[in-house]
Write a structure and sequence with these properties.
Elements (H helix, E strand, L loop, with lengths): L1 H17 L2 H4 L4 H19 L6 H14 L8 H18 L10 H8 L10
Helix pairs in contact: 1-3, 1-4, 4-5
């Protein structure tokens, strides 16, 4: 169990770094898309090995939300975090053929259409 807790802490630390609003609000839509998929790939490395559950991802979202005051940044900053966390929780808790149960290229192709300016990103 200790190893699992270490991995959860490691993922959360990475999210704290990656979701720093100073950097996040400056990303173009294409840069955000690349960022989004790279974080999903990172988390997927640990998902099955350490039996991460939906509640872990909900906690990630809460912790990120409370770490930074996104209201001080551009309008789309919190929306980008919320979009990521919503997708993470949804894809994790939805049965196949979504992200954690399919190959990564299929997942990316399914999500590409969701990356639009009108989607708050």
């Amino acid at each position: 169990m200790e190893e699992r807790n270490i991995i959860i802490k490691k993922i959360l630390e990475k999210l704290y770094i990656e979701f720093n609003p100073e950097n996040l609000c400056k990303l173009t839509l294409d840069q955000y898309k690349d960022f989004f998929f790279s974080i999903f790939e990172y988390i997927n490395l640990y998902k099955n090995k350490y039996h991460l559950i939906e509640e872990d991802f909900v906690e990630f979202s809460k912790n990120i939300h409370h770490k930074y005051n996104y209201d001080e940044y551009q309008d789309n900053c919190w929306e980008r975090v919320a979009f990521f966390m919503d997708e993470l929780i949804f894809r994790f808790s939805t049965p196949p053929p979504y992200f954690f149960h399919s190959n990564f290229e299929d997942f990316k192709n399914k999500l590409k259409r969701d990356f639009t300016e009108g989607n708050g990103l």
